[in-house]
Amino acid sequence: RAFSSTPPQSSWLLPKKGSEKGGKSKKGRPRVHTGGSTRGTTVVWGDYGLRLKDHHRRLSALHLKNGEDTIKKVLRGMKFRLFMRVSANIPVYTKGNESRMGTGKGSMDFWACRVPVSRIIFELKGEIHEKIARQAFRLAGNKMPGTYEFVKKGDAPMMGLTKLTPDVVEKLRTQKAPFALKKYLPAPAIVEAEVQAMKI
């Protein structure tokens, strides 16, 4: 980079947060998709998937490893490929019991990941029967905290806890139609459109 005027970038292998330069990372909470995002809720690379069903969770690296080992144990001897859709890249710090206040955050204990609701955890691809994949994912879900469901490629995406099937999408479009005309209508017409929408 002798002839470059831009500063050299840091290594992409190092995390942006939690390093010594930026200080210790915060505990944080899983993201709540309030804008209608369906990212990470469908099977992309594999044929079957395991999706978080109930509430957002913070899964540790040990939880993910136990789930992965359980799936590989059930599918031992078969031709398959396992994809992990989440990564444990958040350091969790702990302090000893009955310690004085003001002594810092503590030392790093384990790695974890924040998983929002309806996020795909594992994906499975290979020459495997659906019943065997269901059994493997069921046992893996029992090893991890939370409630999980079995999904297949082509299933409808999720927006929070709502499954976006074609009839649900059409219903949402009809509900939002009166409010989409606000910028084109005068003030009395806006009030009338809202009243009609409430009647629907």
Automatic annotation (TrEMBL):
Keyword Ribosomal protein: yes
GO MF annotation: an example: rRNA binding
Keywords: Ribonucleoprotein, Ribosomal protein
UniProt xrefs under CDD domains: Ribosomal_L16_L10e
Region of interest: Disordered: 1-39
This protein's GO CC annotations: mitochondrial large ribosomal subunit
Family: Belongs to the universal ribosomal protein uL16 family.
Name of the protein described by the UniProt record: Ribosomal protein L16
